[in-house]
């Protein structure tokens, strides 16, 4: 190595050592006849000193160093007169005797500091400079640590990491597949996997028993807020197990990660039925860092000639503790919040439980004090509380109130990024109705097994059939999901039928899997975690983009390398395709 | 878990335990009133017994079990009367009390045994069944172990695994790029990486210092003998280092793998100049499990009126120890071998050092005993040795003799798969002349640095310029290669110029990297190992296909899932492309 030590390791214990360091000039300042340079590398910052009295020429060279110049210095570790005890290296400095300029640097387009002045676009274009900043680098170091811990945990439980192919087959369900023309097979295409689902199931048929893979997956879809066309999954599958085994093994994974990476002991990983999650939180991924559960009011509010409630399928509310003092303006803000197009509610009704014990609602016209007292009892409200109530069609109003609940959680500071509330959500519906195509789709995927006792409803009441499917949620974010799979050809064929596949289509697309089920397929199931998302939660970040080394923007572009781009005519010709733009 | 134990763990120490096992019926046989079933899972085989006297019905069910049926049994561990000490579980059997059929199986299309009767095509189609066979499964378990060891070693040295993007940019050099049309950016394409080269260099510019990644790479090329369109690299890069540091760190990696995975202590990892490798072995990846180095004879054979030698640029030979007794037929076989079109030599000359000490050559007409004695001295031959000599144009004849040397190594049993001879080959040429395009190409890649003392020759004698480039070779196979990179914009631009890029082309394709070099790029270098190849060497296999879970065939097809395949017109339309087949 060009260096004897890194910029993060020298302390008072190294006094008088002759050392060689390499790194970048973070900043420098002159003071009398001296120049002080903060030199940075991945491991930390060390102060260098250059003194005109000792070596005027060297000191002059030091004065010429610009930000981000790359240098190699040799010198002696000495005690600092002006110690900085906030830094590990803050008690020492290097009295430099020789210096070599390894590379110069133009002035960076933004500050390479924890708080930078660079906008998002500029930082994306110069991602290699943004990655020099501590917060960004730390995210990737965290990601590395988490990946290592995942592998250690699963390897310790006899899981085998198997690489599944990236060049696979497009499916008719795969409207969001990226495809890859094959030069050797003109007119034909590979697809990039949205997940290694069928391959991991085949590995179970092969007897691999416990598989995992930290693997890139791909989805060519409109990139809403926080999606990336390529993303990383911790993909897992087990054979000869029941749902309980999966929940235990992967609860253990999450516990281990929190313990070993963040030194957080997860007290409890509660379990909740999907139906309860929807009823109590209006969401299949409730943020359980705070309570504020929904209270259903249909039974006590209907029949009092208030049309908004009388005409509603569902009247529900939440109790915002200690918010009774909310001003008119604050209440208007909340009403505006739920009326925003992406939420789309029409109105908000409130009930104040005043500090003097009196109750005051926005619908006093229709409800007397006795009735409001019943409301208060339902909410278990105390003086000082504010009840926020909405009404409408069941599915919609639950979603709307869920948004309001999260907003109130934010306003009340109940969503602390350093608090972690994991949760299993169980027993998802097998199918969900799609208005666009007017048919049922698999809520998880077509390989998910229905609960045996619900199979009979497939013909009569498909929407009510529950699946052996489960999600892991942390702080209101789904970080993983999975299911016990079908391992029986007849049941799998039945599922395909209900999903609108003809027998021929099913055979053409998934014949290899259906066939495999006939050669001795064991019971099996699995789970996949969104690794980007998991890392971002551990990092306390809202966006996955910050935990990806070279992310793409909302248009799927990498602005640093300027990709995607046009390709040469010659290349298109060889691939036997043409563009029709 | 459905089971209490695996099929590989019960021994004489578990006698009388009540256990539950799951697995596949490997085979069964009847003996008197009993049925014996070998049940298999990933961990081993355990014998089950069913006795008519105990439970006639259960025994009848056992008789009905076919090969590969999936079962769950409960019973007691008892001592076997007929022990099989070759198996870990061979001293016990399970006296089954209850059995559940988890899944039946059709008769597999080939035997699921170590030695199978299935041909390659059939096994490829039913890869999920082929993966049940021990040798195939063991390869993937080995692969998993090796990946874990690689990560452990590099993590221990502060390397960080960073995921680089899979959807990148096509380059004009990238004739072998797989491309991916972008739905969001019609008419534009991503490319799949042939390696993460530029990204890992940017990570060095970012200060990541020590990077690695076990990563899929892609190359759309004609699939010779043992290539796959997607393959896996151990990709590594370090900053603030010199070549010596890379050689030490990665020699350490290989040593650690051999020690921890195969319990082999590598004695020595010798280093050889590229020029010496070519001179002594006619190959840049010599198999050094055996000596048999080339001997150059120009000085002593020319000028004796033997036109084959007189007209040759180079006359070289090898000493095949103890082969003097080779018959005429055996010598003819060797001559036929080197005359095969893929080798293309025209003839072979021999010199026998007979056991009585006399010398006999196939060109006695031109050379007298005194002259042959000189040959013998050059070869350091002993009675019993056979010298094989070829003549021709330097580069060609070296390649030809290299093939013959390997063939002799095979014939003499000198290429034992359980012996491992690693080797660093150093100082590769920077450029190689390409007859097709009539210009120089980068031998390694365009980012490789020339030796400083050779830079001046770039203009005058480009073919002689040496690079800071190195390969690791094991047993005649290149398993890794790398270089110290250019980290200076001017030198990188000069390289692009010599590779035939215009300034505009270079900026358009690699502007981000050239720009990055101006913002403080540290000296850096790296290496990439072919992970598939490395695993296959550890497994003692000739083909990488056997260490890949779901490989593609020579036409780039996955015959199991039938991919690539045509895609729907609708999909093409959305992607704004059409096929021109």
From TrEMBL, chains A, B:
The keyword Acetylation does not apply. The keyword Transport does not apply. One of its GO terms (cellular component) is cytoplasm. It is an enzyme of class 6 (ligase). Its main location: cytoplasm. Residues 140-551 form the Aminoacyl-transfer RNA synthetases class-II family profile domain. ATP binds at residues 219-221, 228, 478, 530-533. Homodimer. This is Aspartate--tRNA ligase. It comes from Daejeonella lutea.
């Amino acid at each position: 190595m060009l260096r004897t030590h890194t910029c993060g390791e020298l302390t008072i214990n190294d006094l008088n050592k002759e050392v060689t360091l390499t790194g970048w000039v973070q900043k420098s300042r002159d003071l009398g006849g001296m120049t002080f340079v903060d030199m940075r590398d991945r491991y930390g910052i060390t102060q260098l000193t250059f003194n005109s009295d000792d070596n005027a020429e060297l000191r002059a060279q030091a004065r010429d160093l610009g930000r981000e110049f790359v240098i190699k210095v040799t010198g002696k570790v000495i005690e600092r007169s002006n110690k900085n005890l906030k830094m590990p290296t803050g008690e020492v400095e290097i009295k430099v005797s020789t210096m070599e300029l390894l590379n110069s640097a133009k002035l960076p387009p933004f500050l390479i500091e924890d708080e930078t002045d660079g906008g998002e676009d500029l930082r994306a274009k110069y991602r290699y400079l943004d990655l020099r900043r501590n917060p960004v680098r730390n995210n990737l170091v965290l990601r590395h640590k988490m990946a290592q811990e995942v592998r250690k945990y699963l390897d310790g439980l006899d899981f085998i990491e198997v690489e599944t192919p990236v060049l696979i087959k497009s499916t008719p369900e795969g409207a969001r597949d990226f495809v890859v023309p094959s030069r050797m097979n003109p007119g034909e295409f590979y697809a990039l996997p949205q997940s290694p689902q069928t391959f991991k199931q085949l590995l179970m048929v092969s007897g691999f028993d416990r598989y995992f893979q930290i693997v890139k997956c791909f989805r060519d879809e409109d990139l809403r807020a926080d999606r990336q066309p390529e993303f990383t999954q911790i993909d897992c599958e087990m054979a000869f197990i029941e749902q309980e085994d999966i929940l235990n093994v992967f609860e253990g994974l999450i516990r281990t990660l929190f313990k070993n990476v963040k030194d957080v002991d997860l007290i409890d990983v509660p379990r909740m039925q999907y139906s309860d999650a929807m009823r109590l939180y209006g969401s299949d991924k409730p943020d359980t860092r705070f309570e504020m559960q929904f209270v259903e009011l249909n039974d006590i509010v209907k029949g009092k000639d208030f049309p908004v409630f009388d005409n509603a399928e569902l009247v529900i509310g939440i109790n915002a503790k200690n918010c009774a003092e909310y001003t008119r303006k604050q209440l208007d803000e909340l009403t505006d919040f739920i009326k925003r197009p992406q939420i789309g509610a029409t109105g908000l009704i409130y009930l104040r439980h005043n500090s003097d014990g009196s109750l005051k609602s926005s619908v006093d016209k229709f409800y007397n004090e006795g009735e409001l007292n019943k409301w208060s009892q339902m909410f278990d409200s105390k003086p000082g509380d504010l009840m926020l109530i909405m009404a409408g069609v069941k599915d919609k109003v639950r979603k709307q109130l869920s948004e309001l609940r999260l907003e109130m959680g934010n306003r009340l500071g109940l969503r602390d990024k350093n608090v972690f509330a994991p949760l299993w959500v169980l027993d998802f519906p097998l199918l969900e109705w799609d208005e666009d195509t007017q048919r049922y789709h698999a809520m998880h995927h077509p390989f998910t097994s229905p609960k045996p006792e619900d199979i009979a409803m497939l013909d009569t009441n498909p929407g009510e059939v529950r699946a052996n499917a489960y999600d892991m949620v942390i702080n209101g974010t789904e970080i993983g999901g999975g299911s016990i799979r079908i391992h029986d050809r007849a049941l799998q064929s039945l599922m395909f039928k209900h999903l609108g596949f003809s027998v021929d289509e099913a055979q053409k697309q998934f014949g290899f899997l259906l066939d495999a089920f006939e050669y001795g397929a064991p019971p099996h199931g699995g789970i996949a975690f969104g690794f980007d998302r998991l890392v971002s939660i551990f990092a306390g970040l809202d966006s996955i983009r910050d935990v990806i080394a070279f992310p793409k923007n909302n248009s799927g572009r990498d602005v640093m390398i300027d990709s995607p781009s046009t390709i040469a005519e010659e290349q298109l010709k060889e691939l036997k395709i043409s563009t029709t733009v």
